[in-house]
Design a protein that fits this description.
The chain is of the alpha/beta class and 412 residues long. It has 14 helices and twelve strands. It folds into two domains: 249 residues, 3-Layer(aba) Sandwich (Aspartate Aminotransferase, domain 2), CATH 3.40.640.10; 139 residues, Aspartate Aminotransferase, domain 1. α1 runs antiparallel to α3, α3 packs parallel to α9 and α4 packs across α8. Bound molecules: ligand LCS.
Length: 412
């Protein structure tokens, strides 16, 4: 099946009792056993069948099958949130004395849990610019167990080379984990480039309607599944059947939403590039994006997230965020509605200013999640909000200064 067919069909009931077309919501915390012997056989793993919803549930299984199929993976494990997926993988694969190498611009809380909770249990972490393979290689120690990257990265839109990172991780005996939230499996399938484990915040593109939080872990093989699944079941960061049903409803239009949103994003990125109130635009689909070629090689499209720096720095950004009428000022991303936010004071406020600056998360960076509305309406809204900067903060120089942003190659 092609990916759009999988989004609609994977995980649908094959032997439905009443011919239902949608997966039923099995809202049951526990499942009866035909006999005491069957119950014991299910617990020992000698018989398949559901036991207790924290350990598995048919509605949740349907979603796990759907996302694993979209990723061309082996098996999925649905989690309560994206952070539950990430922390479960860390809990399962790291131990006292071990070390992890991660992208320096991962989602704020991913970095924070490594530097606080996991550090407390003796896990060391190093954060590098993962778009530079030599930095990843240099950071690896004999104790390194995981190389973890997010590409495109939140919020800098930095792209890391998946195949190159996989080679380095495997040469050094590390598990290569990718957070594929920003691209979604519709645009990027990391297993095709050598990844071992994929994590998702389903809250974003996969659900796509800003009404559910959820996460998913997908493994490439059975042995990795067996390493992680008991940790998820026992620590309990699992999903609820109703939540799974809502995400299943969302994922069935993944391809339609992603296609429309990225078409809108490309048009808006070009418009923003030429806007006198915009200093720089980072969108992987623009040829001047520092890793545009890598994105073109490993992705099926460039997605719908854009980072911009506006005239007037943070003050200018605040004016834009307070002036939009159609864009919603809110964190999160990947829904059908367009959102705008300020990472330094919102999603990445938990990361220190010094670390944010090293990672390219400057104070003037404004992040845009482009949705599926009419692109003309979106452009008009941004244009009005950007023009409010000059009206409020005049005078500002009108010449463009794209090349001033630290993420541009020549300024490294
Ligand atoms: N990974 C990435 C790349 C994310 O962007 C997020 C959330 C997570 C993991 C965590 O997923 P959650 O637990 O929220 O389902 N990113 C958010 C953001 O940029 N704004 O609000 C949440």
């Amino acid at each position: 099946m092609k990916k759009s067919t999988k989004a609609i069909h994977a995980g649908l009931p094959h032997n439905s009792r009443y011919g239902e077309v949608s997966v039923p919501i099995y809202q049951s915390s526990t499942f009866s056993f035909p006999s005491a012997e069957d119950g014991a056989a299910r617990f020992s793993g000698n018989q398949s069948g559901y036991i207790y919803t924290r350990m598995g549930n048919p509605t949740i299984t349907a979603l796990e099958e759907n996302v694993a199929a979209l990723e061309n993976g082996h098996k999925g494990m649905a989690t309560a949130t994206g952070m539950a997926a990430i922390s479960t993988v860390f809990l399962a694969l790291l131990e006292k004395g071990s070390h992890i190498v991660s992208s320096d611009c991962v989602y704020g809380p991913t970095r924070v849990i490594l530097e606080t909770a996991f550090a407390k249990f003796g896990v060391a972490s190093t954060f590098v610019d993962s778009s530079d393979l030599t930095q990843i290689e240099k950071a690896i120690r004999p104790s390194t167990r995981i190389v973890f990257i997010e590409t495109p990265a939140n919020p800098t839109m930095k792209i890391s080379d998946l195949a190159g990172t996989a080679r380095i991780a495997h040469k050094n005996g590390c598990v290569f984990v990718v957070d594929n939230t920003f691209a979604s499996p519709y645009l990027q399938r990391p297993f095709e480039h050598g990844t071992d484990v994929i994590v998702h915040s389903l809250t974003k593109f996969i659900n796509g309607h800003s009404d559910v939080v959820g996460g998913m872990i997908v493994t490439r093989d059975e042995s990795m599944y067996k390493n992680i699944k008991p940790v998820l079941n026992q620590f309990g960061g699992t999903m609820d059947p109703h939540q799974a049903w809502l995400v299943l409803r969302g994922v069935r239009t993944l391809h339609l939403r992603v296609e429309r949103a990225q078409e809108n994003a490309m048009k808006l990125a070009r418009f923003l590039e030429s806007h006198p109130m915009v200093d720089w635009v980072l969108y992987p689909g623009l040829p001047n994006h520092p890793q545009h070629d890598i994105a073109a090689r490993q992705m099926d499209g460039f997605g719908s997230m854009i980072a911009i720096g506006v005239k007037g720095g943070l003050d200018g950004g605040k004016i834009v965020m307070n002036s939009v009428r159609l864009f919603t000022l809110a964190v999160s991303l990947g829904g059908v509605e367009s959102l705008i936010e300020h990472p330094a004071s919102m999603t990445h406020a938990s990361v220190s200013k010094a670390e944010r600056e090293l990672a390219g998360i400057s104070d003037e960076l404004v992040r845009i999640s482009v949705g599926c509305e009419d692109v003309g309406d979106l452009q008009e809204d941004l244009d009005n909000a950007l023009n409010a900067i000059s009206a409020t903060l005049n005078p500002f120089p009108l010449e463009r200064t794209d090349e001033e942003h630290p993420l541009f190659e020549e300024n490294r």
